[in-house]
């Protein structure tokens, strides 16, 4: 059985383990950036808050309309009728799913914003009364 060599300073940790302990990893960077965003009270614009659900809703509406067009083509055209009948409902369902997900996402964001505002207000009240 082989014994790992001790480091020159006499500690039992290898130089590789020290390097792993002191290095900044991506997970610590994500944690620190998240904690900074919680404590900063800079107001964000409506677009910064709602841009993701708006994009999902618009993409969902576009895909849904494309599915409507493809499905209606299966009724009008006689060539490639099987392809239109297969692809049309698929685009309809995908577009409807994206549309509903985006529309549900918006009230969730509003609720989180209200909770965050209440939390900041209560924190300021707490700090006002307990820091005297």
Question: What can you tell me about this protein's structure?
Answer:
- One of its GO terms (cellular component) is plasma membrane.
- GO terms for molecular function: phosphatidylinositol bisphosphate binding; transmembrane transporter binding.
- InterPro entries: PIRT.
- Keywords: Membrane, Transmembrane, Transmembrane helix.
- This is PIRT protein.
- About 5% of the residues have low confidence.
- The chain has a domain of about 35 residues.
- The chain is mainly α and about 130 residues long.
- Helix content is about 80%, strand content about 0%.
- The protein contains 4 helices and no strands.
- Helix 3 runs antiparallel to helix 4.
Q: Name the average pLDDT.
A: 77
Q: What gyration radius follows from the Cα positions, in whole Å? A: 28 Å
> What can be said about the biggest beta sheet?
none
Spell the H/E element sequence: HHHH
| Mass-distribution shape | elongated
Helix percentage range: over 70%
Q: What is the structural class? A: mainly alpha
Record field, number of beta strands:
0
Organism: Baryphthengus martii (Rufous motmot)
Membrane topology: Multi-pass membrane protein
InterPro entries: PIRT
Keywords: Membrane, Transmembrane, Transmembrane helix
